[in-house]
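TL;DR need structure tokens for one chain.
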Amino acid sequence: MGDIQKSSNIVWHEAQVSRDMRENMNGHQGAVLWFTGLSGAGKSTLAHAVEERLHRMGVRTFVIDGDNVRHGLCADLSFSDADRVENIRRVGEVAKLFVQAGMLTLTAFISPFRADRNQVRHILGDDFIEVYCNTPLDVCESRDVKGLYKKARAGEIADFTGISSPYEAPEHAEISVNTGEDSLDDCVEQVLAYLQAKGVIGNV
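>> reply
TL;DR here they are.
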């Protein structure tokens, strides 16, 4: 997409209702749980399971799903390298707005490149919590819920992560869950334990 041209006629407006005020009303901090991993690693499944548990605890949440944003916010983007970078940047900026609203935001994106995830980490700072859904390629491929790996192996999908395009695993993820072996409930508990230990949410 290249460098984004910004208008010189805009000024950041400070709201009278602050983030602290919203967080105090919510009873928890705002943050972003960024779920990353191969296709079939269980990112969306885990993100929605975590959200369901948090919702029952009274936490204000929202899941930004990789497929869903392609229907609206990023409908104009292709799957070229440049557009993939822009896709992740847009999501990072939207997630930042949700955090300012005091919400615990969950995102589920393959986001295969460390540079792209680091860009979002730069946007969000300490509010960024990387959750690596660590599932081996053979396990993800054996699931192949959408039939994408089969198409990629047949050469019907170009630049498919894990087959014809690399996935750069996080080196220092805040949370690493073994979604290939551990149960969904165990993975959810691991995420919640981290959030409680960091004081993002209270103990229940």
